[in-house]
């Protein structure tokens, strides 16, 4: 093939990826809108859309009724039958979902655990669930791959879980184990980093390019960063570990762990103990905290909010984000009195860093990590729509 032939083919692949990403991120688009957005001519758009239809990534439908003069333009939408399997292993449960390319949740299963999951357990349970769904909820779906959102340090180069301390995983090759068990392409990332990407693309931070995200889960507190619209992973992929920072604690009475890091002081388990529960999902926890009146419970809630505000102020001073997004039990804590938390953060921040600051709960709620994991699984398809197998029941690219 000539150099010009390779160039033409690479441009075509880039255009296909660009079109697919537009309808993935923005929802259904008319051909006319795609023509205007890309600057390509109508015949080129028609050809590219036809190719995306052929490989099973999108479908076309008749336009909605309109009073506009002229021939209406067909509407292009991602095919919701293209799905990724999203997985979030935690200390108390394994959550698995099938997420469509349209961000729709096709199926979700939460498997409670009394014992810690091992990497091998995780691979086995994911494979069993995928096999079950192929016969039921995902009959006829085209599975692209698996994305795992792991509460720990994940090496960006190869997906090795270097350390997930609360799961007791060290140098765990969970990507390879899940790939072998399922026959699917597998991508692994830090749970909070993936949550940050999901919130930036589809959630509370959708209109923001400088984002600090903190996720509070059963395993502790993690974080993710978006700077000038791009995820920041650091040299090894480990950036954003806000839970390992040591916030200043103004009064000795507020300290619970000598020399403890943020996730030692602000903990889901401490909140559960304060309200007398052994376990609860986020909705149950939120309702219980909102209804809490016992002095010990309200004191613990306020203690954790004070320390959280200091930690957030530190992040604001260092990174100067336009928005801080909180997920999991941190969102629950914040929503008990969001204006009060914002005021406490501003009081401890440099005025210039906080003057345009917004703090919000995660817009994707309980699905934030799953949608982030699915986005990681879709990455290869979105970069080369013709290069990834999406046949029903077929291994997807591995």
Automatic annotation (TrEMBL):
<dbReference type="InterPro" id="IPR036390">
    <property type="entry name" value="WH_DNA-bd_sf"/>
</dbReference>
<dbReference type="InterPro" id="IPR043129">
    <property type="entry name" value="ATPase_NBD"/>
</dbReference>
<comment type="similarity">
    <text>Belongs to the ROK (NagC/XylR) family.</text>
</comment>
<protein>
    <submittedName>
        <fullName>ROK family protein</fullName>
    </submittedName>
</protein>
<dbReference type="InterPro" id="IPR036388">
    <property type="entry name" value="WH-like_DNA-bd_sf"/>
</dbReference>
<dbReference type="InterPro" id="IPR000600">
    <property type="entry name" value="ROK"/>
</dbReference>
<dbReference type="Pfam" id="PF00480">
    <property type="entry name" value="ROK"/>
</dbReference>
């Amino acid at each position: 093939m000539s150099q010009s032939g390779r160039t033409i083919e690479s441009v075509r692949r880039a255009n296909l990826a660009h079109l697919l990403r537009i309808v993935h991120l923005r929802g259904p688009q008319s051909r006319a809108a795609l023509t205007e957005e890309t600057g390509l001519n109508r015949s080129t758009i028609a050809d590219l859309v036809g190719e995306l239809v052929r490989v099973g990534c999108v479908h076309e439908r008749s336009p909605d009724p309109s009073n506009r003069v002229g021939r209406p333009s067909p509407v292009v939408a991602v095919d919701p039958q293209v799905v990724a399997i999203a997985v979030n292993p935690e200390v108390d449960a394994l959550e698995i979902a099938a997420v469509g390319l349209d961000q729709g949740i096709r199926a979700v299963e939460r498997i409670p655990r009394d014992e810690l999951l091992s990497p091998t357990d995780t691979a086995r349970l994911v494979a069993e669930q995928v096999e079950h769904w192929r016969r039921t909820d995902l009959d006829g779906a085209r599975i692209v791959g698996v994305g795992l959102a792991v509460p720990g340090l994940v090496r960006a180069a190869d997906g090795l879980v270097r350390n997930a301390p609360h799961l007791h995983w060290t140098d765990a090759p969970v990507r390879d184990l899940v790939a072998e068990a399922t026959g699917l392409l597998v991508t692994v990332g830090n749970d909070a980093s993936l949550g940050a990407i999901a919130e930036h693309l589809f959630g509370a931070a959708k209109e923001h390019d400088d984002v600090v995200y903190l996720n509070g889960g059963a395993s502790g507190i993690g974080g993710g960063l978006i700077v000038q619209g791009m995820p920041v992973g650091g040299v090894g992929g480990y950036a954003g570990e806000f839970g390992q920072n040591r916030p200043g604690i103004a009064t000795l009475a507020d300290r619970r762990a000598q020399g403890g890091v943020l996730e030692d002081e602000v903990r889901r388990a401490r909140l559960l103990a304060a309200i007398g529960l052994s376990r609860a999902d986020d909705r149950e926890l939120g309702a219980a905290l909102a209804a809490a009146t016992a002095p010990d419970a309200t004191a613990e809630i306020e203690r954790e909010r004070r320390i959280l505000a200091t930690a957030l102020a530190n992040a604001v001073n260092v990174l100067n984000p336009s928005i801080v997004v909180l997920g999991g039990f941190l969102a629950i804590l914040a929503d008990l009195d969001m204006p009060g938390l914002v005021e406490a953060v501003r009081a401890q921040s440099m005025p210039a860093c906080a003057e345009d600051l917004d703090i919000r709960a995660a817009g994707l709620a309980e699905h934030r990590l799953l949608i982030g994991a699915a986005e990681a699984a879709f990455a290869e398809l979105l970069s080369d729509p013709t290069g990834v197998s999406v046949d029903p029941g077929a291994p997807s690219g591995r």
